[in-house]
Amino acid sequence: MSSPPTTNPHSLIGIELARFACTLPILLWHYQHFYYVNGQPVGFETTAQPLYAWLQPFYLHGHLSVQAFWCLSGFIFFWKYAKPVAQGSVPFSKFALLRFSRLYPLHLLTLLIVAVMSWRYEAINASPGFVYPNQDASHFVLQLFMASDWRPGINWSYNGPIWSISVELLVYALFYGLCRLGLTKLWMVLAMIAGSGAVYALKLTPHPVVLCVFFFYLGALTCVAHEAFTQRLSPEAQGPTLKAALALVMAGAALSVIGVLRPMLFVALLMPVAIIGLLHWVQPKSARTQQVILALGNMTYSSYLWHFPLQLLAALVFIHHPADLPAHSPAWLLGYLGLTYTLAALGYRFIESPAQNWIRAQVSLGRARMAT
Predict the structure, then answer these.
(1) CB 131 within 8 A of CB 39
(2) Alpha-carbon distance 270 to 266, whole Å?
(3) 3-state SS, residue 41
(4) DSSP 93-158
(5) 94-146 pLDDT, tens per residue?
(6) Are 150 and 141 in contact (CB under 8 A)?
(7) 4, 199, 294, 338: least surrounded by Cβ within 10 Å?
(8) pTM, rounded to two decimals
């Protein structure tokens, strides 16, 4: 595998757009939380959610964006880290620091906020929780270490959406270990996809790490395919190739609608084509446009971790009269989306990015002092 490109810092600008696009299905899938009271949906009908006719695929299958995110992560990690890790130029301490500083500060903040609000919700309602039932000390400790979903079984607790990040951490470790062994070739990627796919198909374990491995390495395969697409195909052949791939995706969408193709398999078909297509077509010349797309991509993690605290806050506001919460209103839906993305943008600028830079600076300063 060739070294990651370094000449153009925005060479993955299409990936940033894909990351942002994948946030909306998650936010809409979790919109059902507005109907929850004391851990159970009350008066909830999927078809009664606002703008259902327009947003039906997201309300029904929005959870599959988690698999899409895993695929995007696999692409990015292989593009950025596979060869440097294999060559030993990225020690595990640096790799872990980069992941910790990127993920942990916002996770800790939103965990503490949700814990306080959950305590208040339970104190008023004498209930096991708003949506996620495991609001106890042992699950809190697991959340502190981002290990909430390492154990088998369903362990929903506190800021529940963090589960997919918790599982992905295990795959990060697997990825690093395999790369250090030099296993970055195409055959290794195919073996990981085939092996995890077989484990999932045979139902050998229900642990979500299996699907995470499958989609992560599907992203890695997409990285290899993108390299071949850009380096081995002539510019004249790239357009027709992408159009043929898009036709295949459209056929897959039709098969999915009529129930022949499982939605998850459609996501597995869609993501490689979408990633390569976006990287090929989204290449803005304007620096302003590039900055806007980068800003959208930067909102991804924040929106993922902030939307549930906002839902819990709404539940607390309407806790004495939950039926008054206007979940059926399109205005409430749009307000929820707008507020989530606004908080995500502010959170990245004033919390995520500063905390990430501070942690990395402190570690660098500490190493410099030790060296002297």
Answers:
(1) yes
(2) 6
(3) strand
(4) HHHHHHHHHHHHHHHHHHHHHHHHHHHHHHHHH-SS-SS----SHHHHHHHHTT-TTSSSS----S
(5) 999 999 999 999 999 999 999 999 999 988 887 778 898 888 899 999 999 99
(6) no
(7) 338
(8) 0.92
